[in-house]
Amino acid sequence: MSIILATGNRRSPLAERGHDLYETPAVAVQALLRVEDLPHVIWEPAAGRGAIVQVLREAGHIVVAQDLVDYGHPDIQSGIDFLTETAAPAGCEAIVTNPPYKSGLDGKFAAKALALVPKVYMLCRLAFLESQRRSNVLDGGYLARVHAFKSRLPMMHRDGWEGPKAQSAMAFAWFVWDRNHRGGKPKIERIGTKRCSICDEQFIGREGAQTCSNRCRQKAYRKRVTDNVERVG
Question: How far is Cα 61 from Cα 200, in angstroms, rounded to an integer?
Fold first, then answer.
């Protein structure tokens, strides 16, 4: 769950944000899977409606999914306040999550997660790097990698949003903490999502896929045929 700009550089008012549920785009999770070798058993403590959980399970991971709020999904445990947990679920080797941002909860989530599991992967605004109050998790020596997205992710609209859809106005990155990372500076990398060669939309697809849909595949085919005819002619 995370906060996204509603328009320009302003967030939605707290009264409108409700439970702070902003579902993570599947393309963001797939991008993480391409650059990180995630442990097999994962804990998602801010699962929402299961956006991250679904992609991880489809990739073959076992995911313990929890959230403070009950969104009606039987395979996601509700009523679990992550910030009061004292131990990770049995067998969990890592946390992968997109934490709530209101009232500075993202920094608190990072600190709690690192206390409970050896590896933590959090999708946060790139501005997460700026705050003095997060110095304990940013400068503590365990931040190993920051995977910043080359282009903006699809807009993560708040739960129940019925207005126009748009691209995010915020820059995001995956922050990776590892207890085995000893004091060295974190490695900063730029990562990308798959973009359709025809419509340029970000999409989920098999390895090597260039287009997002049958419609775009047909357009790509017609383009190749036209290009071949022009070359022969």
Answer: 29
